[in-house]
Amino acid sequence: MIQFLSCNIKETPLKRLCYGGSIMIEIFKFDHHKFEPIKNIEKDCWINVVKPDNIELERLSNKLNIPMDFMVDSLDIDERARIEKDGDAVLVILRIPIVNVNNYKIPFITMPVGIVFVDNIVLTICSLNINTILDLSSNRKNMIPKTAIELFLSCFSHATLLYLKYLKEINKKSIETEVALHGAMKNEELLQLLDIEKSLVFFTTSLRSNEFMMERVKKSGMIPMNEEEKELFDDIMIDNKQALETANIYSNILSGMMDAFASVISNNLNVVMKILTSITIILMIPTLVASVYGMNIKVPFQNSPHAFLIVMGISGLLSVAGVVVFINRKWF
């Protein structure tokens, strides 16, 4: 069961948000060195909401004056990345990569996370805890966000780096499967490549959607940024394009590899069938000789005490001759 940050909010509308059994709410104050957990919602804070139900969504919407659609859309697994403004609230939906724990065959998928700006408060809402997925509150190289805009940029930066990390893992998995495919005659390894390709399709679609959304964020001016933040955002857009190009390259390579190895598997099976057919023909020679000498008619050597050895010798010589012919013609 998910554990909750203990909240002591005096206002009744938000009290269930902190003690409900199905959700988690974390409230952090922006600080220069770390995220400072706080008990009450105040200006310049980050509210991280994980997997709320409809009742909690409605109460949160009423308390912070956020449109209900903003939060419902953020929990829709198929929601595309976009930016939208309604009154004082601005919604940015970002698609992030996650490890697919529900289906072991498809290693990675993507999901949306909603980032809402309203009254100097930033709220993130998702079906999973993005603080854990993106590791936003870790003090790595003293890069803890100090403002809502820096948190916004940090979400984008961490998500892009996570895409690149998982793309490397996908490439590693595809190489391992490629090695196993060289001698394969079944479809298991080919199906593994197909599942990996599905992850690449998820990544490519989400990265392209994120790219369009980032371009609109930059052009619309809905998220105010200073010059330093704009430069950082430009760097993040470049990293996103790099991840998109990498995903496209891996996808193209994987598609070609699947076509090639489908032919390899078919060829391996043909080689095996050719060998088995050749062996069957060779074994048919002594069977034919034994059948002829087993007929109820007069046959050569029937009165000889060495008839069995003579027949076996003839069978052996004919079999060896057949093997030599097959080898010379490269049928083995």
Descriptive account of the structure:
The chain is α+β, with helices and mostly antiparallel strands and 332 residues long. The protein is 55% helix and 14% strand. The protein contains eight helices and seven strands, in the order αβββααββββααααα. Strands 2-1-3-7-6-5-4 form a seven-stranded mixed beta sheet, sandwiched between helices. A hairpin with a 2-residue loop joins strand 6 (108-118) and strand 7 (121-126). Helix 5 (148-181) runs parallel beside helix 7 (227-293), helix 6 runs antiparallel to helix 7 (227-293) and helix 7 (227-293) packs antiparallel against helix 8. The two termini are 62 Å apart. The model is unreliable at 1-22 (pLDDT under 50).
Mind summarizing the main beta sheet? 7 strands, mixed
Parts with pLDDT < 50 across at least 5 consecutive residues: 1-22
CA gyration radius, whole angstroms: 34 Å
Helix content range of the residues, please?
A: 55-70%
Number of structural domains: 2
Classified in CATH, the superfamily of the largest domain is CorA soluble domain-like
The total of helices stands at 8
Q: How many β-strand runs?
A: 7
Distance between the termini: 62 Å
Which CATH class of the largest domain?
A: Alpha Beta
Secondary-structure arrangement, i.e. CATH architecture of the largest domain: 2-Layer Sandwich
Could you tell me the CATH topology label of the largest domain.
Beta Polymerase, domain 2
Helices and strands, in order, run as HEEEHHEEEEHHHHH
* Structural classification: alpha+beta
Strand content: 5-15%
User: Numbering strands along the chain, what is their spatial order in the largest sheet?
Assistant: 2-1-3-7-6-5-4
Q: So what's the overall shape?
A: rod-shaped
**Average pLDDT:** 81
